[in-house]
Amino acid sequence: MNSYRNMAAFMSPSTEQNMGTARLEMSNRIFFRLYQCANMLHKTGSRAVQEEGLTTQQWAIMGALSRPKSASGMAVIELSQYLMVTRQNLSAVLKRMESAGHVVIQPDERDRRSRIIQITPMGREIWENKALPKIRAYYEEALDEFSLGDMTHILHYMIKLLENMKKIDARSGVQDE
Amino acid sequence: MNSYRNMAAFMSPSTEQNMGTARLEMSNRIFFRLYQCANMLHKTGSRAVQEEGLTTQQWAIMGALSRPKSASGMAVIELSQYLMVTRQNLSAVLKRMESAGHVVIQPDERDRRSRIIQITPMGREIWENKALPKIRAYYEEALDEFSLGDMTHILHYMIKLLENMKKIDARSGVQDE
DNA sequence: GATTATATGTCAATGTATTTACATAAAACA
DNA sequence: TGTTTTATGTAAATACATTGACATATAATC
């Protein structure tokens, strides 16, 4: 794919501003690819667990709730911060998962504003015995020809990018409290 | 953030399957971060261009249409393949952009099934004079402390990941034709 | 030339993402 | 102790993502 074309996906060529041209072109390509990766993860990742009645978002939630440290459940606000989605979005997704029988939503005994989310036995069964094997197969295909070194590097850069985005979020938005 | 906890975000610890444990843990962390990066790009990127009445999706579209090679417009199917979104999704987004006066949608003279999308003078004005300076500022913040070498590496890995996801898409889905 | 297969765009249903708003509860402050 | 500020979850509106379905147009095949 023409690198010039890729560069222009997010913006057209322009006179140099604060960023040098090379740096600007590279920035643009990075965010364009991140945008495409996100769409492709949604499309192909959801297909991988479609037969289990799951989506990529629900797989993230079930993964979080299945950890040993989450055995006693997680508060909605904890889970929303952990996943980096708004509590309004998470609330709606959890309602659907509750209707499907995958999780239970219970009042928090220590704070009446709060709700505690736990995976149900049925949810755990579906997660561990049906979804996880397919997720592993998906990872193998998606990370084909990635060495452990490659994986270490991409993860490092994603964490670094994420730290910067968190800072932008903190400065620009109404902070989720 | 506890790496063990990150690993479990997408799945709980498990006995080794086809993937070694180290590789599986790393896979999980990569996709979890990709998922978070996507959400944060959506949230912080949309805020960056909110005053222009744009979203990250529209910024991708306007970037694509602003390239010199797209001066005569792009067909819907071309644009959907370029952005890696479905033509059904793109159709709806373009309708809103047409209503906002940012693009025009015209019949393709050579193929009556096809529609050609072009950015309007008003759209180009908003894009070049209002959105682009904010997008550059966003890139500077988001890629703070990334060297050109870092940027080259993360881009390389994202392209590689994207190639793998395209292969999964080709094998598993009904191919968009 | 007629028929079949494929391509293209739109519609509808559904899930997921944000923001703003509101109600209730807890924390902080005077 | 009372008041103010902040926290938490849900509701509503809107934008964007998918899939399946359908109508029309073009390409391929016979």
UniProtKB/TrEMBL annotation, chains A, B:
Keyword Disulfide bond annotated: no
GO biological processes: response to stress
GO MF entries: DNA binding; DNA-binding transcription factor activity
Domain HTH marR-type, first and last residues per copy: 27-163
InterPro entries: HTH_MarR-typ (IPR000835), MarR/SlyA-like (IPR039422), Tscrpt_reg_MarR-type_CS (IPR023187), WH-like_DNA-bd_sf (IPR036388), WH_DNA-bd_sf (IPR036390)
Keywords assigned: DNA-binding, Transcription, Transcription regulation
Ranges in a coiled coil: none
Protein name: Transcriptional regulator
Origin species: Acidocella aminolytica 101 = DSM 11237
Taxonomic lineage of the native organism: Bacteria, Pseudomonadati, Pseudomonadota, Alphaproteobacteria, Acetobacterales
